[in-house]
Amino acid sequence: MRHLLSTKDVTRDEAIALLDIAEDMADVANREVKKLPTLRGKTVVNLFFEDSTRTRVSFEVAAKRLSADVINFSAKGSSISKGESLKDTAQTLAAMGADAVVIRHSASGAPRVLADSGWIDAGIVNAGDGTHEHPTQALLDAFTIRRRLHGSGARGKALDGVTVTLVGDILHSRVARSNIWLLTTLGAAVSLVAPATLLPVSTTGWPVSVSYDLDAAIDSGPDVVMMLRIQAERMNAAFFPNAREYSRQWGLDDERVARLPAASIVMHPGPMNRGLEISANAADSAQSTVLEQVANGVSIRMAVLYQLLSGSAA
Ligand code: CP
Fold first, then answer.
1. What is the pLDDT of residue 232?
2. φ and ψ at residue 40, rounded to 5 degrees
3. pTM (predicted TM-score)
4. Is 156 near ligand 1, meaning CB less than 6 Å away?
5. C-beta of residue 133 within 8 angstroms of C-beta of residue 177
6. CB–CB of 152/32 below 8 Å?
7. Which of 85, 137, 223, 247 is the most buried (most CB within 10 A)?
8. Distance between alpha carbon 82 and the CA centroid of its chain, in Å?
9. What gap in Å lies between CA 234 and CA 186, rounded to an integer?
10. Any atom of ligand 1 within 6 Å of the Cβ of 54
11. Ligand 1 center–CA 58 separation, angstroms
């Protein structure tokens, strides 16, 4: 693997291999010394043009656990805020000897531009680009689902027959797009539930079913309900009447969680709007995997950096 730009590019075998390497990396987290010498001498640059807590910090932890040097570079506080272009920024990082660049950008396609540009000879990891994709989030979500379903026997397994319902702001969600491709590649059946205004104009070509009725979806007893954040910062119009009405129709409230089968899991990529798309009780329930997703993000990002920078299995 040279770059990780989209889960559309990841085959089933590659995805299972990454999840298996992440299992090995998770074992490292349980040791007293949580560090491997694997990427000693390599430099990973976190290049964030958009805000992040989970993704940026977990890439930093992941790179450090593999003994790489890490440079954190955000648009705020750098020469990007003075108008420096992506090309000049990339060439500056190349001159500093970056081996991998983890990039988050508001423009869909920015990581692909960097990978195809020739400005920098480094592995490029998409850490979220506009409304397009967030592949490491989908990988950590698949890892979390697989671990919950298969426990210690997860290695080598896919997600065949697992039912996953994605709920909410599909229109603006790069998490939804990456999950749709990855989870279906792994054999899951993905359905979308959202108000019509928060779905793309067309989902033709997407391997999903679509509905507008969260209660019917809950009563069908999905294995996984993944709630998506309402992305107010990307909304330039009113997509629903008001927050109360959105919560009433499409929020995962206490009553809906209670109706789910006990074995169903509740996911959210974070950051959460508690009380809007998910109630506090649902977010903190035993069925919620929100914090597991964060912890698993470190293992997945270790696996991705390892695959990119060492090019062989652990
Ligand atoms: N899930 C996610 O991408 O969170 P951050 O925006 O905090 O990185």
1. 80
2. -60, 135
3. 0.96
4. no
5. yes
6. no
7. 137
8. 30
9. 30
10. yes
11. 10
In angstroms, the CA 240 to CA 101 distance is 37
pLDDT tens digits, residue range 129-181? 999 999 999 999 999 999 999 988 899 999 999 999 999 999 999 999 999 99
Up-side HSE of residue 299: CA atoms within 13 Å toward CB?
25
Atom of ligand 1 nearest to the CA of 127: 3
Domains of the chain: 7-134+297-313 (3.40.50.1370), 135-293 (3.40.50.1370)
Distance between Cα 57 and ligand 1 center (Å): 9
Distance 127 CA to ligand 1 centre (A): 9
Q: Is the CB of 126 inside a 6 Å radius of any atom of ligand 1?
A: no
Pull the structure tokens for residue 83.
């108008």
- Asked whether 279 lines ligand 1 (CB < 6 A), one says no
Query: What is the separation, in whole angstroms, between the first and last Cα of the chain?
Result: 14
**CA 136 – CA 143 distance, rounded (Å):** 10
Q: How far is CA 255 from CA 77, 281, 304, in A?
A: 45, 10, 38
- Distance, CA of 31 to CA of 40 (rounded, Å): 19
- Other Cβ atoms within 10 Å of 238 Cβ, number: 8
pLDDT at 243: 87
- Ligand 1 atom nearest the C-alpha of 270 is 1
Return the DSSP state at 232: G
**Which amino acid is it at 310?**
S
Atom of ligand 1 nearest to the CA of 53: 7
Integer Cα distance of 152 and 86 in angstroms: 43
